[in-house]
Amino acid sequence: MASDDISAFRLGITRDCLAPDGDRPGFDAKAFAVLDGAPSLEWEFLPDFAEQITPTDAARYDAILSLRPALTAASLAGANQAGNNTRLKLLARFGAGFDNVDLAACDQAGILVSNTPDGVRRPVATTILTFILALSHKLFIKDRLTRTGRWGERTRFMGEGLVGKVVGSIGFGSIAQEAFRLLAPLDMAHLAYSPSRHPEDAAGLNVREVDLDTLLAEADFVCINCSLTPSSRRMIGARELALMKPTAYLINTGRGQIIDEPALYAALAEGRIAGAALDVFEQEPVPPDNPILKLDNVIVSPHSLCWTDECYRMIAESAFRSVISVASGRRPDNLVNSGALAHPRWAQISA
Length: 351
Fold this sequence. Notes:
Elements: E1 9-13, E2 41-45, H1 55-60, E3 63-66, E4 90-93, H2 103-109, E5 112-114, H3 117-136, H4 139-147, E6 166-170, H5 174-183, E7 189-193, H6 199-204, E8 207-209, H7 212-218, E9 221-224, H8 238-243, E10 249-252, H9 261-269, E11 275-278, E12 298-300, H10 309-327
Parallel strand pairs: 1-2, 1-3, 3-4, 4-5, 6-7, 6-9, 7-8, 9-10, 10-11, 11-12
């Protein structure tokens, strides 16, 4: 636990990493064993929850592990003024996304930002597999038939075999590659689109790299596995949805803002694509009046389908490894803003 010893490396953990009862971490406490590698490190949960990390937090801790709270320029108020360095050295994201972090402000202040792709790779890939199987077997439709006494309608909703079907991934990073490994025994064809090509990875996974339009036109399951960036925001709109087969499904486990949600609703409601599985939305929590929630051809989950005890433990361990690296004067493995290394405070950091 943390004290007021300014010589110790102090880690603050945002309170949304606690279990719902608020008395214990939401992840397996065994993950804290990773921190045993830095005897001068002290940690505590932040005293209060806020949607945004405050200047007080940035001044109190050397590292902050954050699930939901954003790190903005306002969080670093005064830190970027000449000669004024904040104590905060590392923002360790509890997860893979970092769209709630102002990377430019962190670069200027010399604050490293890390994420945990190694912690979410298998759990999110498993989520993609779950969605593909649930959609192809009409699982949720058949669940409703059974619950509402419509047993006689079961032959109206025939499932679809996957052998020879095409699964396409928008994005070809670690999650997409893990998903292709899990899908290999199902004898599907694999497509991937990424702005940068990965010929060796593609060859090893039997993946054909194509442009976005080709993927949308050929895939029976279009899976979004890219980060939210200015170029990917709403990259799937009316034009892109019109390229998909009427029998195809869209799966989004990335970020809701990558899809033009009104355009997706129209395509689903009008039957221009067969269905969708969404773990993420443009607005979260999703408003109960969102019309997508009323559609029968959509499976939804609250940005948490990959959350399992295994997932949470692996994410925590990955984030703690980044903390240990920075506390020991080393660059964290999963650094997302190498521009921060140009700051004078990192002149002596080791690889």
